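User: Could you go from structure to sequence for me? I need the amino acid at each position, not a summary. Structure tokens:
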């Protein structure tokens, strides 16, 4: 984790760009560890972005854009995905963002 805090309190959307990209990269690394090779990732199916934020923060979708843009830059058209972004009161270790990803992968059996 490279940053801590909440959006709308001590962090801005731009402040969390790098942390959101890092969380997205971590998702690729986790999937690669399971399937044995990042090249076995065929498609990004769905991305969920959890944003630790103050009650008055309402631009969660803009934080999620950092993740979506990252996946498009890495995977091209196969990086297009369904997406949700939600605000939460806290995340583990005071992380500002958490990214959940569903990938389609080649058969690894």
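Assistant: Here is the amino acid at each position, in order:
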């Amino acid at each position: 984790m490279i940053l801590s805090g909440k959006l709308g309190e001590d962090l801005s959307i731009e402040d969390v760009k790098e942390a959101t990209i890092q969380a997205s990269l971590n998702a690729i690394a986790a999937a690669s560890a399971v399937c044995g090779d990042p090249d076995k990732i065929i498609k990004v199916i769905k991305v969920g972005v959890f944003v630790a934020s103050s009650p008055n923060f309402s631009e969660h979708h803009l934080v999620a854009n950092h993740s979506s843009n990252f996946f498009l830059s890495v995977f091209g058209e196969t990086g297009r995905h369904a997406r949700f972004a939600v605000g939460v009161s806290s995340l583990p270790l005071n992380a500002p963002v958490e990214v959940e990803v569903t990938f389609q992968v080649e058969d690894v059996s």
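One structural detail worth keeping in mind: The domain at 17-105 is CATH 3.30.1330.40 (60s Ribosomal Protein L30; Chain: A;).
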